[in-house]
Amino acid sequence: MTIENYIHLYQDALLNDVVPFWERNSPDKINGGFFTCLDRQGQVYDTDKFIWLQGRQVWTFSMLYNNLEKRQSWLDLALHGADFLEKHGRDEDGNWYFSLTREGRPLTAPYNIFSDCFATMAFAQLYKATGVEKYRKIATDTFDNILKRKNNPAGKYSKKMPGVRPLQGFSLPMILSNLVLEIEHTLPKQMVEETIAESVNLVMNVFYKPEYGVILENVLDTGEFCDCYEGRLINPGHGLEATWFMMDIAKRQNNPALMQKAVSVAIQLMEYGWDKEYGGIFYFLDLKGAPPQQLEWDQKLWWVHQEASLALLKGYYYTGNGECWSWYKKLHDYTWSHFPDKKYGEWFGYLNRRGEVLLPLKGGKWKGCFHAPRFLLQGWKTFERMVSQKLSIV
Description:
Elements: H1 3-25, E1 37-38, E2 44-46, E3 49-50, H2 51-67, H3 72-88, E4 99-100, E5 106-108, H4 113-130, H5 133-149, E6 167-169, H6 171-182, H7 189-207, E7 208-209, E8 214-215, E9 218-220, H8 229-232, E10 233-234, H9 236-253, H10 256-273, E11 285-286, E12 300-301, H11 302-319, H12 322-338, E13 350-351, E14 357-359, H13 371-388
Antiparallel strand pairs: 1-2, 3-4, 4-5, 6-9, 7-8, 10-11, 12-13, 13-14
Helix pairs in contact: 1-13, 2-3, 2-4, 3-4, 4-5, 4-6, 6-7, 6-9, 9-10, 9-11, 10-11, 11-12, 11-13
């Protein structure tokens, strides 16, 4: 394939497949917000609404409006979702619930700080699109709340016994490294730079363990390895997603050392996480090769392959590293031959280890309108930058 072929593939999949699927099937025109539990053909099979996915979808359509085309229908959809979130999404203390009924009644308490993260992304991007002050305030108030909670994200909802095996998780610093750039236009410069510096240090110096060549999902509060289920847990896709966040930060900072380290870690994670028998990337692995606690450990998930593809593509674009391009091509062939649904559109989310469709759904409690459109737009634009800079592929 030529670079132009890749550009067309990504552009066509975004604008003529994935985005139209969600435009057609997802809006709840009666109660507001979005349905995300969609079957293979786009029919709604459950009406519960999950704040992660509501926020992510508001972000997606705001982002497309801001970065691709000032298409009124995209802005209208973002406003449609934001209005529902504004009315129903938070408790009296400003914490975002995890899930709601179709009508917007709270189902699950605000135990999960990632609801707040994706609400922040959503309203900051919508503020950029509209200039409406109340959206900026929702974003910054929520971000302040995240910073207050980051050392104890679950708060009163935590099931852990205090003082026994104190672990810190990878997810939040990883997300903050990207989130702070998403909302940079709403924050003081010093706060942005301090948050970036702390997140980069945690991702690249605390959770990344060079002696193992992996990023761990959990470490002790001291940063040390903990030999238990949680401490041995590796999610290769999660680490790979973080590496392209690190690459973008390295580009922003003109930091070649961080760039080379991020590229090196991405390659290590691909080598570690690749299923040498059936192809694709494992969902979870145990550092010592013990049976993982997660029974879905050997499934192949859409977002893992999309985020890994971006890491490898960006690694090649930024540095010209040939290993990145070799891995990208191998992963591209697997991803595009297994996940897109050629009959009904959009992408399957969950395959078994052999690469067969395990669940035919197009959306659910965790899969919504976020990873695929972000991946397709980022991939398309990265290839376009390669053309403009006369970079070649082999």
